[in-house]
Write a sequence for this structure.
């Protein structure tokens, strides 16, 4: 189980991660990360300008679980449905026992009244390691294309 | 040719299936299924609530061919173009000679006047088997995210 | 290095190509092609009707570099962000040292004010060869679903 992680393994982790979110299995969401970890949401413009600020930052599992709880409370009144579509992943670096991967994605949101919209586009910048018997994200940076993000707190991304 | 179907083979079948639909090769569409088969369109809300109702259900190739014929007649007056985009497939179960796979997708529609829209998002829940020399869908459940589906009869999904 | 190109290699080339475009690395864009090459943008309707006209045609690297320069000038005043999402690639033909592949895609555009829209959908029809130590496009035909294309000159596709 030790040693290098393949691009296919990293891609499978990312795939399972978004299916879990789309299924609303939010309690599973933190288990995709190591503990401690780095989970960060930022914007493309922030990244381009070199601004250090994030929209959201969690650095351990307890914080991730807090976020799930907040999300579940917030979502009681608006049961949207989300659908992530992943493009092909690109390996950025594979060094020692860490693989760094980027994956473009879009997320579509459907309201209960049936209306659909493009919720957000962006990319995942991930560091994947082997941890307690499976692959997990040691760090995940979600880079959003739009800079306005007021509603984005709705779900984990 | 007998025996287990790989995830790659199931994914290739799903890929060829959507390219055939997008190309308007509707006469090919039924050949992607075994006979008898199960082809079902439902909504995420139906599935979540455990409602048994489907929007559409075909259980043999003759019914699929009937549907193609209806589609071709209906489409004479509105030659839209469709484009499916598939996310990564996830194997749900691989038992004996059946593989069960899910695949998130979106479908974009372009009208002849050039206007584009997100037509539908959802996922395919498929059972793939080997049948008469190639992989085919023994069952395909198309789970649509939106619950309103009045225009969905336009094409096979 | 010589010999057949695999479907995976062709897919990786297409993936790297769209990440380079989305990153705004336009100076890299021409290096994805052989010299001479064939780069063509057309519409699905054109292709269906058999019209020979293209929206754009470049047949060597110098022309591609000219296009980059024009794009960079044009974009000074409107720094949009683009995000390509690729569906699964389908091998059309693999003969000798050329592989022909098609890939459905959508491209989402985000304006600096944060508004997002589905910019274009379509497919890539590519011929990939090995050339000077790596895979490159000997020809790339970008088939756009919409027929109206006035703003499409904004970026390479």
């Amino acid at each position: 189980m030790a040693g290098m992680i393949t691009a296919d393994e990293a891609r499978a982790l990312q795939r399972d991660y978004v299916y879990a979110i789309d299924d609303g299995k939010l309690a599973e969401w933190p288990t995709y990360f190591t503990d401690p970890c780095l989970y960060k949401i930022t914007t493309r413009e922030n990244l381009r300008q070199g601004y250090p600020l994030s929209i959201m930052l969690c650095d351990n599992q307890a914080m991730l679980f807090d976020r799930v709880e907040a999300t579940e409370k917030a979502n009681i009144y608006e049961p949207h449905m989300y659908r992530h579509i992943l493009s092909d992943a690109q390996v950025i670096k594979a060094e020692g026992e860490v693989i760094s991967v980027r994956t473009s994605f879009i997320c579509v949101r459907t309201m209960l009244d049936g209306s659909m919209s493009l919720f957000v586009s962006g990319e995942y910048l991930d560091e994947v390691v082997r941890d307690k018997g499976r692959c997990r994200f040691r760090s995940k940076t979600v880079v959003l294309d739009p800079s306005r993000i007021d509603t984005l707190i709705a779900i984990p991304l």
